[in-house]
Structure formats: C-alpha cells, structure tokens
Amino acid sequence: MKKHLVAYVNNTFVPLNKAYIHIEDRGFQFADGVYEVVACFGGAYLDLMPHLQRLEKSCIAIAIGLPKSLNELQNLVEKAYQENPFEDAMIYIQITRGVSPRAHVVDKPMTPTLVITVRELPKPSEEKLKQGTKAITMQDIRWKHCEIKSIALLANVMGKQESLKQHVDEAFWLDQQGHVLEGCATNVLAVIGGVLVTHPLDHQVLGGITRTMALQVAKGAGVDIEERPWKLDEIGLTECMMSSTTNAVLPVCMVDKKEVGDGKPGEISLRIRNMILRNIKALRKRG
Ligand code: PDD
Questions:
Q1: Which listed residue, of 117, 167, 229, 255, carries a Cα 20 to 30 Å from 283's Cα?
Q2: Are 148 and 134 in contact (CB under 8 A)?
Q3: Residues 243 and 187: beta-carbon distance below 8 Å
Q4: Domain 126-286 listed as CATH 3.20.10.10
Q5: Out of 2, 57, 149, 281, which one is annotated catalytic?
Q6: In this predicted model, what pLDDT tens digit does every residue of 201-259 receive, in sequence order?
Q7: Distance CA 118, CA 198 (A)
Q8: Residue nearest (by alpha carbon) to ligand 1 atom 2
Q9: pTM
C-alpha cells in the first residue's frame, strides 16, 4: 500500500505535505471559490459527472472560467484517487478565482487555482446506525445563494461547532417561519403522513446529489414525494433523515433533544439508505 498522500495543485501531483497555495490566492483572502466532494468506492464513483456538472454550474454562477473540461476533470479525479492509498475515498475538488494582490474587484483575466485532495471516506459507527443520529436547529444565518457550492462556509462551520458542543451530529438551518431548509453539510428529509418531504430547490438549499438519489430510489420503491417547505412539529411527522455524499442517507432520531417519531431509525429512512447502499455495492462490483 502506498504510504504518502498526494494532492493535485495547478497541473501537478505533489506530496500532500508539499502542496501549497500562494497567500494571495483569492480563496484564502475572500473565500472566492467553489468546491465539490465526490465519493469513490473501490475505484467506482457515485455520480461523478453530476458532481462535476454542479461544479461547472457553481463556477458559472460566480463567473470563474472552468480551468479544465469536464472530461479532463474526470481524468484528474481518477488519477488523484489512484495516486492515494484509500479503497473508499472522498475526493475534494476546489476551484478559486486565482492569485492576485488583495483587492475586492477583479479587473483583469485571472488563472483559476485548481486543487484536488483525497481522504478516506468516513464510515458511520454501528452504534450511530442502530440508534440514529441527532441534530439541533438554528436560525439560518447564511447568505442568500446556498444553491452555489461556495467555499465560504463560516456559518456552516459555526453550526457544526455548535452541534459538536451539544454532542449531536448536525445542525439544521431554519428559515424565519421555522421551516427546515437543510443541514450544515447535508440535505434534510422527513416522512410526513407516509410522504417523503423535503424543501424544494431554491436559493436556500444546495441541490444535493444524494438528495436527488434519495428521491429517485424512494419514488422507485413507490413512496410518494413532495418538495415543499416543512416543519418539525407537523402532525404526522414520523421520520427524519439527512443526506450527503459522505453519509448517503442517515436516519435522524432526535432533534433539539426531542425524539422524532418513536425515537428509532424510521422504516422508510432505512429502506432508502439500504437501497443507496445496494446501488453502491453494484457500482463497486462493476468498478
Ligand atoms: N456537503 N447541503 C450542504 C450545505 C452541503 O454542504 C452538502 C454537502 C449537502 C449534500 O450534498 P451532496 O448530497 O451533493 O453531497 C447539502 C459536502 C459533503 C461537504 O461539504 O463536505
């Protein structure tokens, strides 16, 4: 097994401990950039192209020219995975506007910075899977373009730190009316009256790739789906779950110290999780 971690930085693969970006990179100074996180299972990728397409969309939204074509990016992601020692990996891709003396305004063409790193994909513990995860809610303090996968994640970091302080796994953002928007690094879904409900795609949520997958597999299994604003105290709410590339779908059994439904991982949540895991298994075999 290879020992050293390798990163891709602006056209070269280098040992991770020698991978540097200039201090005047606009990502460092202004969080002027976007990113993606992709999961790879034994060399097989889960929805790599949709992730790269979302990266392109994020770049377009903030007027950064994509530094490589989608096919080139795909090749670089595959090479980055091969250069690193993990069987199951999460691959981080970041694009910033590039390096220039610090000034808010950009008045000349710039060369974007492209970085790819690879880490082991974390696995939820057996205990977490058995008992379900816990979350808190917080008033949404983020900006008004959450559909862009921006590297400006200060609010999300604050939310995650608060969840750590309260010994839970995630913090859910609530809008002014108390609707659940999404988590700090997850989308959030609920089962209300037997229907799978999640906030519609707008500027307040990221269009999660796993969210799409969860809705698709649920639909395929005959579960009704509704994309609408929803609240945790709705009558008939029996299950809650969160979705992300790094977690697939995980049941959420406690929110703000209150049990969701009967306080156990919900049947539909587990079914969706298992269907996604089955897809990953099939992918792994093909890969
Ligand atoms: N986070 N919403 C937010 C705010 C996110 O940061 C993420 C992903 C998601 C889920 O999206 P997807 O299913 O495409 O991973 C929703 C990644 C994993 C992260 O920042 O590490």
A1: 117
A2: no
A3: yes
A4: yes
A5: 149
A6: 999 999 999 999 999 999 999 999 999 999 999 999 999 999 999 999 999 999 999 99
A7: 30
A8: 186
A9: 0.97
